[in-house]
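The material for today's practical consists of a large collection of protein records. An example says more than a description, so a record of this kind follows:
***
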Amino acid sequence: RRVHGGTELEVSVSCTMSRHRNIRNLNLDDYDDYDDYDDEEVVRPPPKEKIKTPKKPTPTPAPAATPTTPISKITIVSPTPSPAPSPAPSPAPSPSASPSPSPISSPTSSSITPTSSSNSNHLKPTLNLAVIGHVDAGKSTLVGHLLTLMGLIDQRTVHKNQKESEALGKKSFAFAFVLDESATERQRGVTINCAQRVFTTPNGVRVCLVDTPGHMDFVPNMISGASMADAALLIIDSRPGEFEAGFADGGQTKEHAMLARALGVSQMIVVVNKMDSIDWDQSR
């Protein structure tokens, strides 16, 4: 690039580099105008504050005064008394008939009439009935059979439960499937959760029937179902060995009876079940 004037380029470079080339041997006394190269602080004027002018409130129009008409004169008109009606002549009493005293009616009985509430027809006495007892005592089967005989279970559901119980090899559990609706309960043949059914008796009592589990592993579920009961049905298995097992150590017949009493159930009906298996033996 010397074609464009190399001498000028060297001079300009040397002038530019002369200030910083030998900065270690630089003598500041030789430069009187060294302070002229310092950066001067630029002092900026403070920003002008905007003066906010208050807005003038808009005047609200005063409500128009309603014209009043002066009352010139007030006249009081007193009602004219109407003439009292003349009493009708009463028939003269016969000498043979004796005067009978007129009945005295109390003012309260004629002025106050009893009112019946509109919800009185819907309020019916309710009985919460818990079914308790030892495992395999037949609680769910007994309750399911009772509901079927009362006509509360349609025939379609009964036929469906019979087919499903036969498919699982548990034909005797057909009525128990009315309350044991989960697949786990039907496969194991054991009630796990409390089942509830409501019906009304012919005399108008609303019965809430609660079927509780009888296995010892599900005692907490039994407590939750029996805690709301007013009375209980204690189901007992009459077969030899099963009756004694319910009262032995770990038996749920005795434990359920004690838990129900502790929960406030003071009325209990003892139901002896499966009497057909012992030929209705009275000695048993």
In short: The longest strand covers residues 126-133. Confidence is low (pLDDT under 50) at residues 10-18, 93-121. Residues 130 and 232 are 5 Å apart (CA to CA). The chain has eight helices and five strands.
